């Protein structure tokens, strides 16, 4: 009665055996993947512009967030010819804007670095399919077209700076491309530039300088205003905003701030009062902008908000041009609502030559120089180079913009559960008849931890990966897991169950329940009709501990045969003999049963994949009622 499992296994649309052979034939370790610690299970060959590119999915202890790309050829070539960027084992990193030498040096130790500045959008799209990483500043627009043109090869976009409004994050996420930035190294430079603009605006430094160079001596015309005792409103009390606040207090200013997300204690520590938007703009003598450009902040300073400001207010913007409606600012300058503005950033950069704003005599301008100090540029270059190299190695980035940031200590603690999660996902999908049609999956984490201290996003992503990858050509990583699941109509819900134990381990067990599907191994179904499996980490190794209602205990490694049989003596020997006669090495066996001498489940780990004939022989053992072969 066990034949159905064999025929189902043979009909299984997931060709595991072919994949394994491929994997064994081509197994090589990438030179730049220092975190790989287990073997590669999936490889694909694709032809990119005449080069065969072997793409490997690495199972890393940490996280296989990125696919790596390696060419068949071992030769390393470095060239500036756009059509000949890649034929090398090392990743190719395209740097499209000027980056500090220290960062470039770091990148060069790891990959082939192509510096091509001032690329047109078309030139960027033409190059990008040959690149594994792209590093930009604010001048390169990384649009959806760029991700499309990358044809899946681009793994990471590094923004050498803070603002990521020039990168289409939604498109990056959809294409599974990680975006990282360098959020800290230019903070002080931007804050200093803000203070420089504030002071030079108040004392007409730029205008007076231009006037003198034009041969004039206009002491009366350029009488300024003092800063001391004036109220400065910081709009956006983040890294730059708080540094500007500190410095402005040093100049004797009264500093208030508006930031809907800033913690009050941070403001208190700097001696700054957090106030509402309206209160900030209506009471300030000076307003300094430090918020990001988002759909919410786009043109947040407009005719209406200017009209609420104190007459004669002075505005500094070193954040993003787009937060100001520039036409409205010209009107406010013309009617005296705004006495002066000092701007480092513009809606369109560079702004048109005839820009009324730039030409306005009460406006001081600089060409987006906030981050442009030698120190900041070297710092940013190193910060972004480290982030990009880390991402290409498969490490999770601390500065990921479109993926959850998982602190290293959490990551190392969760590493075995990451592997367990992927294996449970792979197992669950193989237990489904036909291997597809899964719509609803519930994951239950049993843990003694306070739910707030258990970040399961990584685990959910890996379960998603385990479920989706065997049945599609999607490559899942932490960036695109949720998006891809949604796109495929797969709903993954999570539940936390409190474990009684006060174990040191973060998680006691992980259960995966797949509802509303048929199983090719009926014993995997529980009474409520769900396919249910459970796994645990034991001594750092992932184990399968439950299938349906049957308890088992097998390490999740290699291949697995699950048999349901009448519980009687000699079964292990009989199946073991069949496998032994055909030179299939058994790595472990475990029997689980619900009631003595009725039904039992036998889980057999095998190093090699048994051929069809061997599986048929197992099916012919009279006491075996059903069985299934699973590739872990
Ligand atoms: N001119 C330059 O060269 C230069 C250099 C560095 C940073 N910047 C820009 O400065 C801005 C701030 O950079 P950062 O490093 O301080 O970033 P940050 O993320 O540390 O700070 C931004 C702050 O803005 C707040 N914010 C978000 N929405 C807001 C809103 N609607 N109203 C008020 N506050 C809001 C956030 O809560 C956050 O605290 C960014 O736009 C960045 O791109 C420009
Ligand atoms: O957001 C930033 O980091 C600054 O605007 C700096 O941009 P830049 O790298 O183009 O100078």
TrEMBL record:
Q: Which residues form a coiled coil?
A: none
Query: GO terms for CC?
Result: chloroplast
Signal peptide positions (record)? none
Q: Name one GO biological process term.
A: L-serine biosynthetic process
The record's top EC class is oxidoreductase
Which reaction is catalysed here? Answer: (2R)-3-phosphoglycerate + NAD(+) = 3-phosphooxypyruvate + NADH + H(+)
Major place of residence: plastid
Q: List the GO molecular function terms.
A: NAD binding; phosphoglycerate dehydrogenase activity
The organism's place on the tree of life at top rank: Eukaryota
Q: Which UniProt keywords apply?
A: Amino-acid biosynthesis, Chloroplast, NAD, Oxidoreductase, Plastid, Serine biosynthesis, Transit peptide
**Enzyme Commission identifier(s):** 1.1.1.95
Keyword Chloroplast assigned to the entry: answer is yes
Q: Which intervals hold domain ACT?
A: 560-632
Quick check: keyword rRNA processing in the entry?
Answer: no
Query: What family is it from?
Result: Belongs to the D-isomer specific 2-hydroxyacid dehydrogenase family.
Specify the protein name. D-3-phosphoglycerate dehydrogenase
Species: Abeliophyllum distichum
Phylogenetic classification of the source organism: Eukaryota, Viridiplantae, Streptophyta, Embryophyta, Tracheophyta
């Amino acid at each position: 009665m066990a034949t159905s499992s064999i025929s189902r296994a043979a009909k299984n649309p997931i060709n595991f055996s072919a994949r394994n052979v491929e994997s064994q034939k081509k197994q090589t370790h990438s030179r730049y993947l220092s975190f790989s610690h287990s073997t590669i299970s999936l490889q694909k060959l694709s032809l990119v512009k005449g080069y065969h590119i072997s793409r490997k999915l690495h199972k890393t202890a940490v996280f296989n967030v990125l696919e790596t790309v390696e060419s068949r050829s071992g030769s390393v070539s470095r060239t500036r010819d756009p059509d000949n960027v890649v034929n090398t084992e090392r990743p190719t990193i395209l740097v499209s804007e000027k980056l500090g030498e220290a960062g470039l040096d770091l990148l060069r130790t790891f990959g082939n670095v192509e510096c091509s500045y001032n690329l047109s959008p078309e030139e960027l799209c033409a190059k990008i399919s040959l690149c594994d990483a792209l590093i930009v500043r604010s001048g390169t627009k990384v649009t959806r077209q760029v991700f499309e043109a990358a044809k899946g090869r681009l793994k990471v976009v590094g923004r050498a700076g803070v603002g990521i409004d020039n990168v289409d994050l939604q498109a990056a996420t959809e294409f599974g491309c990680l975006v990282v930035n360098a959020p800290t190294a230019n903070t002080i430079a931007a804050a200093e530039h803000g203070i420089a603009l504030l002071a030079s605006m108040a004392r007409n430094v730029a205008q007076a300088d231009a006037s003198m160079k034009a041969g004039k001596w206009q002491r009366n015309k350029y009488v300024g205003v003092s800063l001391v005792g004036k109220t400065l409103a910081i709009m956006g009390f983040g890294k730059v905003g708080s540094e500007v606040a500190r410095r402005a207090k040093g100049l004797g200013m009264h500093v208030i701030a508006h930031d809907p997300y800033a913690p009050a204690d941070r403001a208190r520590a700097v001696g700054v009062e957090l106030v509402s938007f309206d209160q900030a703009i209506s009471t300030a003598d000076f307003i300094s902008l430090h918020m990001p450009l988002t759909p919410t902040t786009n043109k947040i300073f407009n005719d209406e908000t200017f009209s609420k400001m104190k007459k004669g207010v002075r505005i500094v913007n070193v954040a993003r041009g787009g937060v100001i409606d520039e036409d409205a600012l010209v009107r406010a300058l013309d009617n005296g609502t705004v006495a002066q503005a000092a701007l480092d950033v513009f809606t369109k950069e560079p702004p048109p030559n005839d820009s009324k704003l730039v030409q306005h005599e009460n406006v001081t301008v600089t060409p987006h120089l906030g981050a442009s100090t030698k120190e900041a540029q070297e710092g940013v270059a190193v910060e972004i180079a480290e982030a990009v190299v880390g991402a290409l190695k498969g490490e999770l980035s601390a500065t990921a913009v479109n993926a959850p940031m998982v602190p290293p200590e959490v990551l190392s603690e969760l590493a075995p559960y990451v592997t367990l999660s992927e294996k449970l996902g792979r197992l669950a999908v193989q237990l489904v008849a036909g291997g597809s049609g899964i719509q609803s999956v519930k994951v239950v984490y049993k843990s003694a931890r306070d739910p707030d201290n258990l970040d399961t996003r990584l685990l959910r992503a890996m379960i998603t990966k385990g479920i989706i990858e065997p049945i599609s050509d999607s490559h899942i990583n932490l960036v695109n897991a949720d998006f891809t699941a949604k796109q495929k109509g797969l709903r993954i819900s999570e539940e936390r169950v409190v474990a009684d134990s006060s174990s040191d381990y973060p998680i006691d067990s992980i259960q995966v329940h797949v509802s509303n599907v048929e199983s090719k191994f009926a014993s995997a179904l529980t009474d409520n009709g769900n396919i249910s499996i459970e796994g645990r980490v034991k001594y750092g190794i992932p184990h399968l501990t439950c299938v349906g209602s049957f308890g088992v205990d097998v390490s999740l490694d290699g291949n697995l045969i699950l048999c349901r049989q009448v519980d009687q003596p000699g079964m292990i020997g009989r199946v073991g003999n069949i496998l032994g006669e055909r030179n299939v090495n058994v790595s472990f066996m475990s029997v689980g049963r619900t009631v003595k001498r009725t039904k039992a489940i036998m889980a057999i780990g095998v190093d090699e994949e048994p051929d069809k004939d061997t599986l048929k022989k197992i099916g012919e053992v009279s006491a075996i009622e059903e069985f299934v072969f699973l590739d872990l």
